[in-house]
Amino acid sequence: MSRNFTTQIQSPKLKDSSLLRQSAFINNEWVKAKSGQTFSVIDPATENEIGKVPEMNVEDTKEAIMIASKAFNEWANLTPKNRHDYLLKLHSQILENQNDLASILTLENGKIYAEALNEIRYGASFVEWFAQESRRVYGDIIPSSLKNHKFVVEKQPIGVVGIITPWNFPNAMITRKVSAALAAGCTVVIKPGAETPYSALAFAELAIRAGFPKGVINVVTTDKYVKEIGLEICTNPVVKKISFTGSTAVGKLLMEQCSSTLKKVSLELGGNAPFIVFDDADIDSAVEGAINCKFRSSGQTCISPNRIYVQSSIYAEFASRLADKVSGFKLGNGFDTNTTHGPLINQNAIKKVTRHVEDAVAKGAEILVGGTKHTGNFFYPTVLTGMNKEMVITSEETFGPVAALYKFETESEVINLANDSNSGLAGYFYSKDIGRCWRVADALEVGMVAVNTAIIGTCEAPFGGIKESGIGREGSKYGIEEFINIKYINFGGLQKNSTNHFKL
């Protein structure tokens, strides 16, 4: 791995500079914080300031919630076709501006531009998907057990939704949640990650261009008052639903706070994904899969493999091939076309990855490649062998570019090892044995399984976990259900009169 790289690559100028907004967004207006305070947003690659956005507090949040509540009835009473049309216009706006959106994402998040562009397209796919799903929210007629009664089930939007998103996928996390909520007929108040507010604000700008009515989408930005705003969103009785992606610890806190008003919650929380390579696997495919899902976004994804289990007979070969590939990575600014991996988000991330690597080495692990930080927010992509269950990585999500390899002997052993976790988001394995593929896929205690592939997330498939990895699903036909109330209506007293018409 080359240790010669530069972070001082000039970011490309936006074709449309008005997409980089320095204000929050309430009632289709660009607003400042009531206090007048702002906070800085930092480019993690250069550690330079990108700009400042409003430091909003509880009072600003209450206003956003009130505005969303006022907009709710009008938005909910539109036809599904109306909402479909708005979302398709938004989808077109995203694709028309995808290059600028990707530049904004790379600037504030640090991931390489190619990955940022893929995220924009991935995010757009959810807007298109839920535009279509808005027209397929079907109710039911239930066969009645009572004479002269009709049992009807209809589905109605739940109301104002609080959307709290992280920094690692600042576009896709918003589009996946918000487009489902909007399609269902809900209005939203978005609180983006403090590290990456600009993607959320650009999304709001495009919503204006798509013609969305006032108050349907609102964005509240904050760094200093994250806890206070989170508490307000969770306890305000006007908000009927919370959709959150982030750490398990914060998810538990939000769920506890929501209990005061019995809000509906969707939580997509931390992972500790197992990645299993059996001795009958295609090793080249398994290595490629491990690279794609372990080192994407420099390992800063919730579905990134945290524990890589390799059967003993191929352990050395797999480790060697993986280390060889990783040694060819190039760190640098995400706008540099030669860069393969960008920075971690901040120094807290660097400290955590460093702690995990040092703990593993102290307990017997060997570093095949990487293992140290560089300058600033950069950490060299790392491959560790000789891992064991006593190491911190085994039980704690790293969220960084560290591939930790564990050796196993039998299928039953590795299933027990893989399931020995409080997390249950994603799992991966490689095998050519069709019987084993079915057995292991069924046995893994996770919400999502990838067999002989590194691909998990698509708009058509349900995304979410079990155990302490969360509640609910995003994407797919199931995703819109998270923003809907089911109402049962019993029409009684139905009798025929002499003219053969029904009456109440």
Task: Please tag this protein with its features.
504 residues, alpha/beta, 6-stranded mixed beta sheet, 37% helix, globular, EC 1.2.1.16, Succinate-semialdehyde dehydrogenase, oxidoreductase, Aldehyde_DH_dom, Ald_DH_CS_GLU
List the helices and strands and how they pair.
Blueprint: E1 24-26, E2 29-31, E3 38-42, E4 49-54, H1 58-76, H2 80-96, H3 98-109, H4 113-133, E5 140-142, E6 150-157, E7 160-164, H5 172-184, E8 187-191, H6 198-209, E9 217-219, H7 226-235, E10 239-245, H8 248-258, E11 264-268, E12 273-277, H9 283-294, E13 305-311, H10 312-326, H11 347-362, E14 366-369, E15 382-385, H12 392-395, E16 402-408, H13 411-419, E17 423-424, E18 426-430, H14 434-443, E19 448-451, E20 466-467, E21 470-471, H15 476-479, E22 484-491, E23 495-496, E24 502-503
Parallel strand pairs: 7-8, 7-10, 8-9, 10-11, 12-13, 12-18, 13-16, 15-16, 18-19
Antiparallel strand pairs: 1-2, 3-4, 5-6, 6-22, 11-21, 14-15, 17-20, 23-24
Helix pairs in contact: 1-7, 2-4, 2-5, 2-6, 3-4, 4-5, 7-8, 9-10
